[in-house]
């Protein structure tokens, strides 16, 4: 997370409007085909082989119990973003890797109507309210949270602040140590008091590199 940068550029207002309308004109069929295309690219990549191996030896039985549900926050708009299409494709791949027996749920305030249709198409259930990641788990749950705001990670951990619950959660997201590297302890204490305890106790296994690979594709 700390050794890559978002590419920023400025568009004129006219170009921006044209850009927006081009983005918006995508149909559900196009979105579905974009996601399938990204999925094929990922499945053929070295990244996928490494990811699958890493997951197999850390996060699948007999190393830990089966994941039941996946909850995805902060993927962004699949309609508008190439990166979101990759991340959504990876989310669907996770369904197979983890052989989940429950459901996939998703929420991002940026989801458009077409995004919601895409969720339906791929049998991902839309979370209808902005729960700000304050979901208390009832099953073994994987939270798919690529590059989410710091507060969401903290809310999730706070809402499951019980060792029996924390043990049943996997968070696929930013490398948590990164926050310790870029923020003072006082800021972290104020903004993410629960997250900092998890960081300090080192009860996380960083996998941000994976998201960085997705960013670059
Ligand atoms: C930095 S962007 C990351 C987007 C995308 N995952 C990526 O890697 O490019 C953070 C995302 O978190 C989403 N977000 C903000 N608040 C949220 C909330 N309460 N629940 C779910 N997602 C949220 C934003 O809409 C945005 O899409």
User: What would you call the quaternary organization?
Assistant: single chain
End-to-end CA span: 15 Å
Name the beta content range. Answer: 5-15%
SSE class: alpha/beta
> Which whole number gives the mean pLDDT?
84
The total of beta strands comes to: 5
Low-confidence stretches: 1-9, 206-217
Q: What's the gyration radius in Å?
A: 18 Å
Description:
The chain has 217 residues and is of the alpha/beta class. The protein has a domain of 142 residues. 51% of the residues lie in helices and 10% in strands. It is built from eleven helices and five strands, in the order αααβαβαββααβαααα. Strands 3-2-1-4-5 form a five-stranded parallel beta sheet, with helices on one face. α5 links the parallel β2 and β3. α6 packs across α10 and α9 crosses α10. It is globular, with a radius of gyration of 18 Å. The N terminus and C terminus are likely disordered. Bound molecules: S-adenosylmethionine (SAM). The site of S-adenosylmethionine has 19 residues, from α4.
List the helices and strands and how they pair.
Blueprint: H1 13-24, H2 28-43, H3 46-59, E1 69-73, H4 82-97, E2 104-107, H5 113-121, E3 124-126, E4 141-145, H6 150-159, H7 163-166, E5 169-173, H8 177-182, H9 185-191, H10 193-200, H11 208-216
Parallel strand pairs: 1-2, 1-4, 2-3, 4-5
């Amino acid at each position: 997370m700390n050794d890559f940068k978002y590419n920023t550029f400025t568009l004129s207002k006219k170009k921006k409007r044209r850009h927006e309308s081009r983005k918006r004109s995508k149909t559900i069929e196009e979105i579905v085909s974009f996601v399938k295309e990204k999925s094929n690219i990922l499945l053929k990549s070295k990244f996928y082989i490494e990811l699958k191996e890493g997951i197999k030896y850390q996060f699948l039985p007999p190393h830990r119990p089966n994941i039941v549900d996946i909850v995805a926050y902060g993927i962004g708009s699949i309609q508008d973003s190439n990166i979101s299409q990759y991340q959504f494709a990876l989310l669907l791949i996770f369904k197979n890797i983890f052989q989940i027996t429950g459901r996939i749920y998703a929420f991002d305030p940026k989801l458009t109507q077409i995004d919601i249709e895409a969720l339906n198409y791929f049998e991902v259930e839309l979370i209808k309210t902005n729960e700000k990641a304050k979901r208390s788990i009832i099953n073994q749950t994987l939270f798919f949270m690529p590059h989410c705001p710091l507060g969401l990670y903290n809310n999730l951990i706070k809402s499951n602040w019980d060792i029996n619950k924390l043990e049943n959660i996997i968070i696929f997201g930013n490398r948590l140590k990164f926050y310790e590297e870029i923020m003072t302890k006082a800021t972290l204490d104020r903004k993410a008091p629960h997250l900092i305890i998890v960081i300090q106790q080192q009860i996380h296994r960083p996998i941000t590199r994976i998201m960085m690979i997705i960013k670059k594709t």
